[in-house]
Amino acid sequence: QVQLQESGPGLVKSSQTLSLTCTVSGDSITTTNSYWSWIRQPPGKAPEWIGASHYAGNYYYNPSLQSRTSISRDNAKNTVYLQMNSLKPEDTAVYYCRVVHSRGTNWGQGTQVTVSS
Predict the structure, then answer these.
(1) CA–CA distance, 5 with 109 (Å, rounded to integer)
(2) pLDDT per residue as tens digits for the range 51-79
(3) Are 1 and 26 in contact (CB under 8 A)?
(4) What is the pLDDT at residue 72?
(5) How far apart are CA 96 and CA 50, in angstroms?
(6) How far is Cα 22 from Cα 112, in angstroms, rounded to an integer?
(7) Distance between CA 57 and CA 14 in Å, rounded?
(8) Hey, which of 58, 87, 101, 115 would disulfide with 34, CB 3.0 to 4.6 Å?
(9) Which H or E element spans position 109?
(10) To the nearest whole percent, how much of the chain has pLDDT over 90?
(11) How far apart are alpha carbons 100 and 102 in whole angstroms?
(12) Dihedrals φ, ψ of 115, to 5°?
């Protein structure tokens, strides 16, 4: 059973940079056909896909966030990272890590990020 655990600062100030970590266990982030995404859900709003790391090393981004977002990974640590800069209060959300793979979909529990003005 693959498990994903998000971690991050919880509270950041406007204009600062957010760095989140998704630590994976029970599977490898390089497993064939796996697709590791970051998704967020602001309070009272629908989930929003931020971007993803493909097992082969490609990265994909939501065009509306691409200019402020960077996803990376460390294969040795089996970890996927999210960096988002120029934060705004509207970036406040629960941020999730998710994998889609041949056996289905797994989500992390999410981590709350609050951006103060």
Answers:
(1) 7
(2) 999 999 899 999 999 999 999 999 999 99
(3) yes
(4) 97
(5) 10
(6) 13
(7) 31
(8) 101
(9) none
(10) 95
(11) 7
(12) -105, 120
- Please give the Cα distance from 113 to 95 (Å, whole number): 7
Would you give the DSSP letter of residue 68?
G
Distance CA 69, CA 28 (A): 23
How distant, in Å, are the alpha carbons of 45, 46, 103, 117 from that of 21? Answer: 23, 22, 23, 23
Amino acid 60 reads Y
Tokens of 69: 């977002």
What are the DSSP E strand ranges found in 11-74? 11-13, 18-25, 35-41, 48-54, 59-61, 69-74
**Amino acid in the structure at residue 31:** T
Helix/strand/coil for 88: coil
- CB contact at 8 A, 27 and 99: yes
What are the tokens at 10? 């919880």
Residues of the chain with pLDDT under 50: none
First to last CA, the chain: 40
Which tokens belong to 39? Answer: 């998704």
Quick one: which of 104, 117, 111, 115 has its CA closest to 41? 111
Q: Which amino acid is at 62?
A: N
